[in-house]
Amino acid sequence: MPLNLKEDEMFNSKITGLGYYVPENIVTNDDLSKIMDTNDAWIQERTGIKERRHVVKGDGDTTTSMGVKAAKIAIERAGIDKDDIDFIVFATLSPDYYFPGPGVLVQRDLGIKTVGALDVRNQCSGFVYGLSVADQFIKTGMYKNVLVIGSELHSHGLDMTTRGRGVSVIFGDGAGAAVLSRTEDNNTGILSTHLHSEGQHAEELALIAPGMGSRWVNDIIADNDPNDESYFPYMNGQFVFKNAVVRFSEVIIEGLKANNLQAQDINMLVPHQANLRISQFIQKKFGLQDDQVFNNIMKYGNTTAASIPIALTEAWEQGKLKSGDLVVLAAFGSGFTWGSAIIRW
Ligand code: ACO
What is the pLDDT confidence band of residue 1, given thresholds at 50, 70 and 90? Predict the structure, then answer.
């Protein structure tokens, strides 16, 4: 493993394949209004969401299986074989098991040889964190092709009653994947990534349930009431919103400055799909046109670690990412964690 690499000894990583998978089952705002006190107007006005996908219980889809479906598409589009994958990074907040994480399940289900598999637990920033990890491994020459997956199965763990409406209307299920490959051209691919965290606000968007997590190891799980609201995610929505708009902006500016670039240089911003109002705020702040910011939260809700790779794949499929374009990814979420990636497509 080379150490103290000089610039001319380093490589760039480039996204060579993208794929996504969402379950077929569409849940509209009107569907939700039948099971809780909410309505289409409130949800659209506050979040921009019209519908989201939910896995139908018992149909076999899991966080891992959705990730595998997205990964197969990404690998095929990258024009490589699964055995060319040198490393797997899997980002999720909704793993199939408490442990082991989904990374090893992907290695098994795709029949990839015994390469390393890493699980990333950074919620909405998970994909940007995962991309950054993959990028570092490729930059230093350690790996040639890294598979990065973001996948979430939220719907089975949400409080689908009026009590949980502030959170449950927002989140949806789905998966996205990217193959990062080595390129000798240091002017293209991932130019830089920028990661942050502020654990002081860890409990402002969290799932903290007795029996779940080593902090509660002395509790007897069987004694806990499954209807206890602490079993569902909690979000201090307005506090999270206020922090999100600040941190999104900061980390985009940080990434642009690191590359001597300016907002005018951005061709496409693909923000984590947390709330359409957050995306619109960022768009206005950076003076971007409608066609310079990719949003699909209307169709899928917030799919957390999957949101950026799903959006990136759709943007690519729609021909919105052209060779030479400056593409900026930015995310903020639970932790708090946030990050950006500056990419020359
Ligand atoms: N339907 C109808 N009414 C609702 C609903 C609903 N689904 N949810 C809440 N309300 C009510 C509330 O009870 C409240 O009523 P009250 O005024 O009578 O008390 C009122 O609507 C306003 O509620 P707020 O929570 O203040 O609504 P807000 O405008 O803040 O919107 C939202 C809530 C959409 C959650 C917003 O705060 C938000 O998007 N926050 C940021 C989310 C985010 O970025 N998360 C980070 C990524 S996620 C991750 O990392 C896992």
Answer: very low
